[in-house]
Amino acid sequence: MSPHALDDLLILDLTHYIAGPYCTKRLADYGARVIKIERPDGGDPCRRFGPFPDDTPHPEKSGLFLHLNTNKESLTLNLKSLRGRQIFFKLLTHADVVVESFHPRVMRQLQLDYPLLRRVKPSIVMTSISNFGQTGPYRDWRAQDLTLYAMGGEMYSSGATNRDPLQQAPGLTLYQGGAMAAAATMVAVFGARRHQVGQHIDLSLFETQVGSMDRRLTNLVAYQYNGASPAPEDPKPVGVMPSGVYRCKDGFVDIRTNIRWWERLVNMMEMPELNDDPRFGTEDARLNPAHREAFLKQFEDWLMRHSRQNIMRKAQQARLPATAVNTPEEVLTDPHFVERHSFVDIEHPVAGTWKFPGAPFRLERTPWQIRQPAPLLGQHTEAVLQELLKFSNADIQELRDCHII
Fold first, then answer.
1. What is the DSSP secondary structure assignment for residue 361, as one 8-state letter?
2. 36 DSSP β-pair partners
3. I want to staple 145 with a disulfide (CB 3.0 to 4.6 A). Which of 72, 116, 173, 326 is the partner?
4. Does the bond joining 51 to the residue before it have cis omega, within 30 degrees of 0?
5. Cα 49 to Cα 41: distance, rounded to the nearest angstrom
6. Are 76 and 38 in contact (CB under 8 A)?
7. What is each CA distance from 378 to 74, 96, 117, 186, 341, in whole angstroms?
8. Superfamily assignment of 10-215+339-401 in CATH?
9. How buried is 134 (Cβ within 10 angstroms: 0-12 exposed, 13-18 middle, 19+ buried)?
């Protein structure tokens, strides 16, 4: 078996829902040993989020949970109990990283905040993922990805003129924050190994996206330069040039053009005679909005004679950006994605076999790999306690009887 890039890393995962589990998934899928510590009474609330097979809720069949928790081990532990915390600190001596996504006050209330962890293991790295960070007036505020997107300012310019602002795709902020948390964690791990001292990472989901996602940085800088505050605007067509989603022979395509690409558009359509038409033969004529309807009639007629795949091939040959608007089924069966294993089959003992996204990037010598599906609740409790802490079967049964695990 090939080695894995992060197979010497042990992570205690105290995260739940989306952002935190996505962070630890990124590390687990590249070899880190991730022990997901869940509440004995139900585990990660994400287990109750859909989609579910046949739309029937089941704590071991959540598609979202199965995706976010591949290659992890599940250990149930009641961190509100003294014995539960004692077990956690024993596990901590074996760990390199702790990742948590509680509200900022929770880790201190549990007596698991970073100053205490550092006393037990000075080299430990702790990544804390929260909505607005560990400090500041909004520290304890609740939020969703929609909240974070709106507060960041870009929703203000999303949508159409004289209409309410629009949100971005659900979960986008949370996934980006999780990916940023994984990168930040590895930066701190490298620092800890070089300097023999750990540190606490304070990751604000709001701050991970306010300067990056969806034109955010561009508009923030523009405001500082000239006071510009962009408002929603309807897209303005440039002369006859088509841009947007159009119907074709077997569905829809999305194509983008501009006035500089007229010859490319003509080449894609294989209609050089358009250059002889006085309505389109010069740049001034092509910029005249009065000629737009006449051109779109010819363009849409051409589209209806061609399939999506054919249009994509012709656009590529003509160096124009165009894509088929695919259904989910077509994405999963697309020959390019199939050849690259962009989606992989994962067999789960309860949920069955389903396709999930594959490697986000590929390493030649230390490959990404699904070593095991998302764990059942508490599936690895006994094994972890026996292996790392040398607990006996009697010890484990006592902990069960006391509702510690």
1. S
2. 13, 74
3. 173
4. yes
5. 16
6. yes
7. 5, 22, 24, 27, 31
8. Crotonobetainyl-coa:carnitine coa-transferase; domain 1 (3.40.50.10540)
9. middle
d(CA 184, CA 191): 11
- The SS3 call for residue 347 is strand
- For the record, the structure tokens of 305 come out as 């004679």
> Amino acid identity, residue 332?
L
The CATH H-level superfamily of 244-327 is formyl-coa transferase, domain 3 (3.30.1540.10)
Query: What is the Cα–Cα distance from 84 to 92, expressed in whole angstroms?
Result: 12
Give the CB-side neighbour count of residue 67, counting CA atoms within 13 A. 21
pLDDT (tens place) for every residue of the chain, 405 residues total:
568 999 999 999 999 999 999 999 999 999 999 999 999 999 999 999 999 999 999 999 999 999 999 999 999 999 999 999 999 999 999 999 999 999 999 999 999 999 999 999 999 999 999 999 999 999 998 888 777 777 775 665 666 666 666 666 678 889 999 999 999 999 999 999 999 999 999 999 988 887 776 565 566 556 566 666 565 555 667 889 999 999 999 999 999 999 999 999 999 999 999 999 999 999 999 999 999 999 999 999 999 999 999 999 999 999 999 999 998 899 999 999 999 999 999 999 999 999 999 999 999 889 899 999 999 999 999 999 999 999 999 999 999 999 999
The pair of three-digit structure tokens given for residue 234, joined into one six-digit string:
């309807």
Write out the two tokens for 355: 């396709």
Q: Tokens at residue 258, please?
A: 């501009």
